[in-house]
Specification:
Layout: H1 2-26, E1 44-51, E2 54-56, E3 59-63, E4 67-74, E5 83-86, E6 91-94, E7 100-106, E8 112-117, E9 123-129
Parallel strand pairs: 1-4, 3-9
Antiparallel strand pairs: 1-2, 4-7, 5-6, 5-8, 8-9
Length: 136
Amino acid sequence: MKRWRAAGLGGVRWAGLLASAVLAWACGEPESTSGGVKTATTPRVVHVVVGDSGYNPSQVKVLADEPIELIFRRTSDSACGKELVFPERKIVKQLPLNRDVSVQLMAKAEETIHFTCGMGMLKGSVVAVKALPEGA
């Protein structure tokens, strides 16, 4: 009889651990079920390469009020791409060669956020749209 009780208590402990794990999983960071697209709590990540010909992509379309993380990587030793400026947001970042630099933004409805190099020769933008095209 004592052996049964000991096993029963062990089962209760395992059940408690399992319940805790399920609860932690259920309360974790939410994601929508629409094709793996993350919800508004997690920024969408877009990589932008800064090369000899400018920003690629030079235009990034986002949903209005969607948090976005732009990760810039300068791959050219051109002096023009060494600095990144978001004039409307008063953001200035240095872009070291072959290193990622992150900028987090959220665009309002029908807003266009411009970004340029320090000399204003390279230009790009973040454009808030009502809906993203398929595959974006």
